[in-house]
Design a protein that fits this description.
Layout (H helix, E strand, L loop, with lengths): L4 H6 L7 H14 L5 E2 L1 H10 L4 H4 L2 H12 L14 E2 H24 L7 E2 H6 L1 H8 L5 H8 L6 E2 L1 H11 L14
Antiparallel strand pairs: 1-2, 3-4
């Protein structure tokens, strides 16, 4: 599946402009069940029904990572209960995180040749050429694999891959980086 990164970025209003903020408010309102906070289920449904981004909707691990990091962005104005949800003040950060974690998901999926949502050493080694386009040269693939595989399970899980991708500043060669990050 080919990702239309320009279209994806256009659906995620992350700019610090009045127009983008108005779009975010509208998106938030459409996703919200009426209580002023978004649950993971509301976000998931909103990605499918409001944003209509099937590629991300199918990338549950990316949605989960973006949701988890966004809800921890700040102290909730709703007390402890609000810490389990995304408030509007966290929504822009959620959209930015969603875009970034989806890029990591796409890189992960391109490396996971058999599609079992785990990367074996053989898959990692076979993907060396494309991985090096994303992160730069890797001298010792076995050593790099071991660094990523934090739990020593012999496979790379998405969470482990994300930590490594962030540290390596992974950037897919074919994505559209034209998204406002500040």
């Amino acid at each position: 599946m080919s990702i239309d990164w320009t279209d994806l970025n256009a659906k995620l209003p992350t700019e610090r402009t009045g127009a983008a903020k108005a779009k975010r408010k509208d998106l938030f309102k459409q996703m919200d069940a009426g209580n002023g906070i978004l649950s993971l289920a509301e976000v998931d449904k909103g990605i499918r029904d409001v944003l209509k981004i099937d590629e991300i909707f199918d990338a549950k691990a990316a949605i989960m990572r973006a949701f988890q990091i966004a809800k921890k962005r700040g102290v909730s104005s709703r007390g402890a209960m609000g810490d389990d949800y995304i408030e509007f003040k966290e929504f822009r950060f959620f959209l930015l995180s969603l875009r970034q974690y989806f890029e990591y998901w796409e890189a992960f999926a391109r490396t996971d040749a058999d599609g079992d949502k785990r990367i074996s050493f053989d898959e990692f080694q076979d993907a060396q050429e494309k991985i090096e386009v994303w992160v730069g040269p890797i001298g010792d693939m076995e050593g790099e694999f071991a660094k990523i595989d934090k739990n020593g399970g012999g496979i790379i899980l998405f969470d482990e891959f994300c930590e490594w991708a962030i540290a390596k500043n992974l950037d897919l060669e074919d994505d559209d980086d034209n998204i406002v990050l500040e």
